[in-house]
Amino acid sequence: MVKKDPIHDKARIQLAEKVAASGVRHRQVLEAIATVPRHAFVDEALDTRAYEDSALPIGHQQTISKPSVVARMVELLHKPKKELGKVLEIGTGCGYQAAILSLVAAEVYSIERIRPLHDQARAKLRPFRIPNLRLVYGDGIRGLPQAAPFDGIILAAAGLGIPDPLLDQLAIGGRLVAPVAKSEEEQQLVVVERVSSQRYQRTVLEEVFFVPLQSGTV
């Protein structure tokens, strides 16, 4: 995925070390953070900040999430001693998290509702020729029923609840990781595991901050 680049190679390794220090322990996730060139997914004007553990603007009132948050959420998708199969990402954004997911999951589908972001992500990801990643332009709230069920679903935006179509498309034994808004000012990271066809187990974790989840396409 990555061409030899001594300056950015060192920056990626240092970023992975910062992410590990934040509490992420999953080996594959940390290796993915150390592999994917984050500078390739941000505006050139922000190149010097690409390997900070911070969120950065990507246009259209959207952001690329903090690497430690990306890693935390991707780690939460994993179940102990089980490989991650088919994953659905809601909110492609610039494509960085999709690239991370492609290194830890067997198959990745990523939906973006904003056409310019979808097109930009496709252009940014094209040089990497990732065979197990599919980008889709569409309404993420509806999910992707034609490719369901998914072993993991991850949302990059916060709604007041988790859309029913996404819960329906989660495989039994699968996990959904999402920020959920309690109010305009308060959001929490939530993990939902589907334990049977009708039963879901919900775990509320730490406070987070994401852009709002919106329906439709633009």
From TrEMBL:
Location(s), subcellular: Cytoplasm
Keyword Phosphoprotein recorded: no
Name this protein carries in UniProt: Protein-L-isoaspartate O-methyltransferase
UniProt family annotation: Belongs to the methyltransferase superfamily. L-isoaspartyl/D-aspartyl protein methyltransferase family.
Function: Catalyzes the methyl esterification of L-isoaspartyl residues in peptides and proteins that result from spontaneous decomposition of normal L-aspartyl and L-asparaginyl residues. It plays a role in the repair and/or degradation of damaged proteins.
Active site residues of this protein: 65
InterPro entries per the UniProt record, alphabetical: PCMT, SAM-dependent_MTases_sf
HAMAP family associated with the record: PIMT (MF_00090)
PANTHER family xref list: PROTEIN-L-ISOASPARTATE O-METHYLTRANSFERASE, PROTEIN-L-ISOASPARTATE(D-ASPARTATE) O-METHYLTRANSFERASE
Alphabetical UniProt keywords: Cytoplasm, Methyltransferase, S-adenosyl-L-methionine, Transferase
BP GO terms, sorted: methylation; protein repair
